[in-house]
Predict the 3D structure of the following.
Amino acid sequence: MNLEIQQKWLKFKYMIFLEIINQKKFTLISAFLFIYLIFNLLDGDRGLISYYEKQNTKNKLMEEKKLLVLELNSVEKKISLLTDKIDTDYLEILYREKFMVGKNNESIYVK
């Protein structure tokens, strides 16, 4: 008989729980949807955190691009000094750096 009472009591408790859930369906569904939207807004591939990470990566790449453009312009200028018209001053600078001939302020005269 004791087992029978426990089963009725559990069934009664279970029914009360179901009644509460039936009464508050809208609130529960709304709460779950709100939590789902907040998690998707903040996290994920299209979330707010990911947006800031991508902005940071974009800024780093833009700075790197500026540095590479400056370096490219410098290399193009050096190439133009050596190809179109031979610039003897630039050649002299290269000779002094590569072969360590003379000092920086020293001028060389050829007979």
